[in-house]
Amino acid sequence: MALFRKLRERFHDDWCSACTAPMEIIRKQLYAMPEQLVGHYTAHSQPEYYMEHLLPVERKAEIPTGMYACGIIGYRCPQCGHRAVKLSVFLPVRGEEKVEQNLYFEHGELDALLWSPERTKQAPTPKAPDTMEAKQAIETAYYT
Amino acid sequence: METMEKIQKVNPLYLLLNTVGPVAVMVLSVALGVLLPEQVGLIISILGFGLAVAWYAVLGRKFYNKTRERTLAGLEETGFVPNHTFNADGCTVVVDLVHAQIALLFRWNPTKAYVRPASALSNVCVDDGRGGAGFLEGSSRVSFLFMVDGMKIRVNTFTSNKRWRMDSDYILTGISKADLMVETLTAAGAQAAK
C-alpha cells in the first residue's frame, strides 16, 4: 500500500481514491510553520497538530528563512463528489523546495482549518531560536 | 562581558594532548607490557592500547563536547544570552541578540569563548561550494563565512566526501542553515550599530 501511495503521490496526487477520476482543486493555501525550523524538523501526521500550528501566508516570500512551510490543496471529485486534502510540508530554500512529507486527509479532518472564516491572517514570527548542528554525509567511496 | 583577547583557533597544548597523547599512552603501555611480567604486562598493554583507540574513536569527541558545554555554561553565567547556537565541526558560533554580541568557540581550543560585538563582524556571507559544470555541477561543502579581527572564520553547515547536486536535500538544508545564520548575524550587527 505504501508503494501505491508513493506512486500516486509522485504521479497522480489529484486522482480520486474512490473512482480514480482526476479531481479538481477547490482550495489552495500556503502556511508557515513557526514551530518547525531547519535542523529541528519533527514529522507529524496527526491533523490536530496542523490545526494548531499553521499560520496562513500569501506568498513564499513571507516565510522567514529557515522556517518550514506547508502547502494545502483541497480536492473534490467532479464525478463522485469525494473530497480530499493534500498537505505537503517543505522547506523553502532560495526558490527550491525540500519536501519533508506529504499527507492525505480524506475525511474532512482539515476542513475547519481550510474553510473556517475566523482564521485570520497572522504574520509568522520565528520561534525562539535553538541550537543547530552541522549535517554531515560522509560515505565511503568504493573503487573497483 | 566582551573579551578582547586575541582570537586563537588552536590551543597547541590541547591539540598535542588530543593527537599525540593517545599515541604516547599506546607506546607506554606496550613498553610496560614488554617490561612487566607476562600476564600483568599483557593486561596493561591491552588496556592502554584500547584506551588510545577509544579516545580517537569516541572519548576525544565526548571530552570536547563536555568541555564545550562547560565553556558555554560559563559564558551564560557572565550574562551572555545564547539566542542562536550553531555547532559545526570546527567551530561553535553563539549569537546573543539581546546584547548584540557573538561568541566563538573552536574545536581545538574549546576552553575559551571569544566574545565580540556583532558590529565587529564583516563580510558575512554564504558559500554554497558550487562547482563543476553541466550534470557534474554540485557541492560537497556549504558554509557561512565572516571576518572578525581581520581573521576569516568559516563555519560549515554541510560537508561530505562526495559531490551532491545543488537541489539535493543535504545541500538545500545546508544552504538554509547558512542563510539563517547569516541573517541572524546581520540582524545582530544591525542591532549593535544602533
Helix content of chain B: 40-55%
Terminal-residue CA separation of chain B: 19 Å
- What is the radius of gyration of chain B? 21 Å
Quote the average pLDDT of chain B.
91
Low-pLDDT runs of chain A: 138-144
Rough outline of chain A: globular
Low-confidence stretches of chain B: none
Q: Roughly how much helix do the residues of chain A carry, as a percent range?
A: 10-25%
Q: Please write the string of helix (H) and strand (E) elements of chain A.
A: HEHEEEEHEE
What general form of chain B does the structure show? flat
State the gist of this model:
The complex is a heterodimer of chains A (144) and B (194). Chain A is of the alpha+beta class.
Could you describe the 3D structure shown?
The complex is a heterodimer of chains A (144) and B (194). Chain A is of the alpha+beta class and 144 residues long. Chain A has one domain. Chain A contains 3 helices and 7 strands. Chain A has helices at residues 2-11, 47-53, 111-115, and strands at residues 24-37, 55-57, 67-76, 83-93, 96-105, 131-133, 135-137. A 5-stranded antiparallel sheet of chain A has the order 2-1-3-4-5, with no helix packed on it. In chain A, a hairpin with a 6-residue loop joins strand 3 and strand 4 (83-93). Chain A is globular, with a radius of gyration of 17 Å. Mean pLDDT of chain A is 79; it is low at 138-144. Helices cover 45% and strands 28% of the residues of chain B. Chain B has 4 helices and 7 strands. Chain B has a domain at 82-193. Chain B is flat, with a radius of gyration of 21 Å. Chain B is of the alpha+beta class and 194 residues long. The A-B interface holds A 37-39, 65-66, 91, 93-94, 96, 98, 128-139, 141 and B 83-89, 95, 155-162, 164, 167, 169-170, 172-177, 179-181, 183-184.
